[in-house]
Specification:
Length: about 725
């Protein structure tokens, strides 16, 4: 029974770190707490008397470590406070995710940047056998959109029916949308997405015939979870105490297209400042008395653009004392008004309905096992074996693990095996006795539980044409290896980030004779220009964007291919992995590349152009202070063998810098060359991705001299065999 209780509470797809005794922590509902043994926490231990699905989820999310084999939970303090500027809930994003500001255009009036205000949504309706847009909305989580009640049950033209929500839109005339400086494109967003509506939730007291617009607020639940990116992200929500906030003379930002009966004032998303006005004065203009849950404002910007969309939100920017960051929050939902500077706009205050919003949020499906669509009980284990979803006590291979010492690795494996419940008893994906590794997951790229999926790896950043310098967000997997030599930090090699814990490089960068005793100590990620930190990118003398400062992650251990010989002048098996001593958090400037699998792993690259990127690192010197890129054209191994004086084998690749390429040097030993292809196997991931073709072994930037590489695809099995949980 004790075994089952442990797993019933904590087998899930969350990863926790072990916490020392009685550490301060935060409960799932954002209260201050203490991490202590479960049995000693009366408020949570008493929940076992009535184990509902909701309490099980809460207990799982409360786990904060182990004391020996006994689980610890974040036990709320008797006098705990929420400690948050914004509305907090387990189904709402935290302050680390919501309302993050971006660098807006310094010039350009009311235009918005591609990634500015990424929570802006459009409501798509079906009317007269056509798709039409009548309202806006605001993304508040990965499953919910906030809008006006009239956008759901109002007197919509022709009986229009809401069918989906569009996210990531910027300009109605293009898809994907691109932003340009001068005549050159510099950045393209991902295509917008239309997410079907699962259901709409209108405030119970809303009356479509009420001309005073009371309770004009609604939620839309999407039929699937939305993945956040630079162009689709949620806004923060205010606390219920915001209902009493006086917005008179406070500047707010209205964002939209000026939608009016399926017509738009501007095809491009714009922004305008709205100045909060006194409710009493606005009431006189509207002809009724505003209540405390309503807000009034007048367009303040001098721009002629109209950004007023019914159902969209006005945004307020504040400094969050708790996270010490600037954040945007949705102050109010637009109910009525025009873009006339002399006429007021009516809003519904979000803070007045915070409790109502929380009461309507529903949990996602708890089952995390990947079920076979035909056989409901078939599933896939965390290590990619075929299995059956069954009660834990009936699965001998996993049940027996509870008799062993419960290591972090075992605990994580059990959590990831969870696939549902039978009454109150947890079920796990139990491997079949004759199970074999799944041959193919339907992917172009190498797949493994410890490697990123195609939704994360190798994202292509569309940069300016005809430019050899690398944009800040471009090729974010580029790594620099940092060594300790002569009591100084030195740089001899490059590398490539392939997961949140592993970097790919050349074996000679670990055991090469040229190192002369230098010791690899850390890996630098997010670097672009050695002369600045943070790095900034500018156009025509004006700063446009700055990256986050680079990070240096200490090395836990290096793994060199067993057959590599530092004295072998033929550079055989010149490949290695570096395991970092901590997990890397992915950002726009630090992300992993994909690894090749299947047919592209054995691809013949003769005549194919690949991308070489780096600084031209050579014995702690760099040819370019700023990261650059060049094209390398694959050559036949037979021809290259004649030039290098030895026979290249199948696991090696040879190429020349393109003769019309830029003069910059990008050859970093240990760095990789990459290639772009379109991922077609997964319907949800039919977009371009970059993968690491090969690791650089030898060569220089002379256009007449070949560059030698070690093909990554030939070492896929070796790479997988070295990954540790």
């Amino acid at each position: 029974m004790i075994k089952l209780l442990k797993i019933a509470l904590f087998v899930c797809a969350y990863v926790y770190t072990t916490s020392s005794a009685h550490d301060a922590c935060q409960t799932p509902d954002k209260q201050q707490g203490v991490c202590k043994p479960f049995k000693t926490c009366s408020p949570l231990y008493s929940l076992l008397d009535n184990l509902t699905e909701e309490t099980i989820t809460y207990l799982r999310q409360s786990q904060c470590g182990y004391e020996a084999k006994h689980p610890k939970v974040c036990c709320p303090n008797a006098n705990a406070t929420t400690g948050s500027t914004f509305l907090a809930h387990s189904l709402l994003p935290g302050v680390d995710t919501c309302g993050i500001p971006t660098n807006s255009k310094l010039f350009g009036g009311s235009s918005t940047s591609l990634d500015e205000f990424p929570w802006t949504a459009l409501l798509v309706y079906q009317a007269d056998n056509q798709q039409k847009i009548y309202c806006g909305g605001t993304l508040i989580s990965d499953r919910y959109v906030l809008t006006a009640a009239k956008c759901i049950t109002g007197n919509l033209p022709g009986g229009a029916k809401l069918v989906s929500v569009r996210l990531g839109e910027h300009n109605f005339t293009s898809n994907p949308d691109c932003e340009r400086f001068g005549l050159l494109y510099t950045d393209c967003a991902e295509p917008f997405i239309d997410v079907p509506v699962e259901k709409s939730i209108v405030h119970e007291e809303y009356d479509a015939n009420d001309t005073n617009y009371r309770h004009d607020i609604a939620l839309i639940r999407l039929n699937k979870t939305v993945a956040f990116n630079d162009f689709v992200a949620p806004v923060c929500l205010p606390l219920n105490t915001d209902v009493s906030k006086n917005y008179t003379k406070i500047r707010m930002m209205q964002i939209g297209w000026g939608i009016n009966n399926n017509k738009v004032f501007s095809p491009e998303k714009t922004k305008n400042i709205v100045m909060g006005q006194d409710n009493e004065e606005c009431g006189k203009m509207f002809g009724f008395t505003f209540n405390q849950s309503q807000l009034c404002g007048i367009k303040y910007s001098s721009y002629s653009s109209c950004s007023l969309d019914i159902g969209s939100s006005v945004i307020v920017t504040i400094f969050d004392d708790y996270s010490q960051n600037v954040r945007h929050y949705a102050a109010a939902v637009t109910s009525a008004g025009t873009c006339d500077k002399n006429k007021p706009i009516l809003y519904t205050k979000v803070g007045a309905y915070s409790d109502w919003i929380l009461s309507k949020l529903e949990k996602h499906n708890l089952i995390v096992c990947k079920k076979n669509q035909i056989f409901a009980d078939m599933c896939q284990t965390p290590d990619k074996q075929q299995g059956i979803c069954k009660p834990l006590r009936d699965c001998s291979p996993l049940y027996s693990l509870l008799d062993d010492n419960l290591t972090q690795e075992t605990t994580t494996f059990l959590r990831e095996s969870h696939c549902g419940f039978e009454a109150k008893h947890p079920k796990v994906c139990c491997p079949n006795a004759n199970a074999t590794k799944l041959e193919s997951t339907g992917s172009t790229f190498l797949t493994h539980a410890l490697l990123p999926g195609v939704d994360t790896c190798g994202a292509v950043y569309y940069t300016e044409f005809f430019r050899f310098y690398v944009s800040l967000e471009e090729l974010p997997w580029t790594a620099v290896l940092v060594y300790q030599a002569d009591n100084q930090e030195k740089i001899y090699c490059g590398g490539t980030l392939i997961s949140d814990r592993y970097v790919l490089t050349a074996a000679q960068c670990i055991k090469g004779n040229f190192l002369e005793g230098a010791k690899l100590v850390s890996v630098r990620l997010g670097e672009n220009n050695f002369t600045t930190n943070p790095d900034c990118e500018y156009y025509r003398g004006y700063w446009s964007e700055c990256a986050e400062p680079f990070i240096e992650v200490p090395v836990e251990k290096s793994i060199v291919h067993e057959e590599y010989d530092a004295n072998d002048t033929n550079y055989r098996h010149d490949i290695a992995l570096i395991r970092l001593n901590q997990t890397v958090v992915f950002t726009d400037f630090v992300r992993p590349i994909c690894l090749p699998s299947g047919t592209i792993a054995n691809k013949n690259y003769t005549g194919i152009k690949v991308i070489q990127h780096g600084w031209g690192i050579n014995n702690n010197n760099v040819s370019n202070g700023r990261r650059s890129k060049n094209q390398v054209k694959g050559q036949s191994n037979e021809e290259c063998s004649k030039l290098v004086g030895f026979t290249l084998d199948q696991s090696q690749l040879c190429g020349f810098k393109e003769i019309f390429s830029f003069s910059s040097c990008t050859v970093d030993i240990g760095g990789s060359v990459s290639h772009v292809i379109e991922e077609r196997f997964n319907v949800s991931s039919q977009y371009s991705r970059q993968y690491a073709v090969a690791v650089t072994s030898a060569g220089n930037c002379d256009e007449k001299e070949p560059i030698l590489f070690t093909k990554v695809g030939d070492y896929s099995d070796w790479i997988l065999s070295k990954l540790e949980k």
